[in-house]
């Protein structure tokens, strides 16, 4: 629940007064960012907020131009001053992350609030994150819940997941596993890997639902397929111990190995390495070679 969102998708609409915007968007969609720059730059210089926001995105991501956070800030500021909500959210995220400007949580809050007031779900989520973490404001889980709810009501999967986490942990609301399950399901149905992992964890422990290892496996598999390291580690444990599936050391080793390569240094990664090595000692050389091959050839899949 720590990363802050920039609305770094290109704006699809512009005022009909500005010819060339549609041509710029068509260039973006075919991956021709040099052509997009040729269309957006004169529009942005004439004051079109949508083109200014899109130029900011291009400079932020280094698409068609060298990556330049200061230049991205310049264009986001111009668009935000005209009330462009996406640019306002992006400014907030730039201040929060210290990209192109010194990190400034108070300034980030200012721009997130302006964008959130216009209904930008990413900005509502970001406000919730800042209240949950106490960044630029006193920590306030009830206020975090307020903003998560607004974003979740728009179908924002990360906000739905965060609501589920708050209900599961009892932060800002009474602990309620059934309500947590509700929000995790909504986010998981959109392919959100953390929500899928959390559903699997709740089925493992029988929280809000009867314990069901088959259902656990279903959700861990979906999250692990997207590269969620915690789900890969837990999937390894399920295969290792034959929970919800027949015991399978090849699959266990593969998933432990993938998790160990993705987890940050710490106790979870250490556990993945330890269990992988325990499983390896029980395998034949052929089984070990097969597990290593599967890990090498594994590629993440989209959540949809």
Question: How would you portray this structure in words?
Answer:
The chain is mainly α. It has 16 helices and no strands. Helix 4 runs antiparallel to helix 5, helix 9 packs antiparallel against helix 10 and helix 14 packs antiparallel against helix 15 (267-280). The model is unreliable at 1-17 (pLDDT under 50).
What characterizes the major β-sheet?
A: none
What is the H level of CATH, i.e. the homologous superfamily?
Answer: Tetratricopeptide repeat domain
Backbone CA Rg: 23 Å
Order of helices and strands: HHHHHHHHHHHHHHHH
Name the beta content range.
Answer: under 5%
Share of helix among residues?
Answer: 55-70%
Distance between the termini: 21 Å
Overall structural domain count: 1
Mean pLDDT: 92
SS elements, strand count: 0
Number of helices: 16
CATH topology: Serine Threonine Protein Phosphatase 5, Tetratricopeptide repeat
Uncertain runs = 1-17
Query: What is the approximate shape?
Result: globular
Class from helix and strand fractions: mainly alpha
CATH architecture: Alpha Horseshoe
The first-level CATH class is given as: Mainly Alpha
Overview features:
disordered N terminus; 304 residues; Serine Threonine Protein Phosphatase 5, Tetratricopeptide repeat
């Amino acid at each position: 629940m720590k990363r802050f969102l920039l609305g770094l998708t290109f704006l699809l609409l512009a005022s009909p007064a500005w010819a060339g915007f549609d041509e710029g968007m068509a260039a973006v969609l075919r991956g021709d960012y040099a052509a997009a720059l040729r269309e957006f730059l004169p529009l942005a210089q004439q004051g079109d907020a949508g083109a200014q926001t899109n130029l900011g995105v291009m400079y932020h991501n280094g698409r068609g131009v060298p990556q330049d956070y200061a230049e991205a800030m310049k264009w986001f500021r111009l668009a935000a001053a005209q009330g462009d909500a996406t640019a306002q959210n992006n400014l907030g995220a730039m201040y929060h992350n210290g990209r192109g400007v010194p990190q400034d949580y108070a300034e980030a809050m200012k721009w997130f609030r302006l964008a959130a007031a216009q209904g930008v779900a990413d900005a509502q989520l970001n406000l919730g994150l800042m209240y949950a973490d106490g960044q630029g404001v006193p920590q306030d889980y009830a206020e975090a819940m307020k903003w998560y709810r607004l974003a979740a009501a728009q179908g924002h999967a990360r906000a739905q997941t965060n609501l589920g986490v708050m209900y599961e942990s009892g932060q800002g609301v009474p602990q309620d596993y059934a309500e947590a399950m509700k929000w995790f399901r909504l986010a998981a149905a959109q392919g959100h890997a953390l929500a899928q992992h959390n559903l699997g964890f709740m089925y493992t422990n029988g929280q809000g639902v009867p314990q069901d290892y088959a259902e656990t496996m279903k959700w861990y598999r979906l999250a692990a397929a997207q590269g969620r390291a915690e789900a890969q580690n837990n999937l390894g444990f399920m295969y290792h111990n034959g929970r919800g599936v027949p015991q399978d050391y090849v699959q266990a080793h593969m998933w432990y190995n993938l998790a160990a390569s993705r987890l940050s240094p710490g106790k979870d990664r250490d556990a993945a390495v330890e269990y992988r090595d325990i499983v390896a000692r029980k395998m034949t050389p052929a089984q070990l070679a097969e597990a290593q091959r599967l890990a090498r050839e594994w590629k993440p899949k989209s959540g949809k």
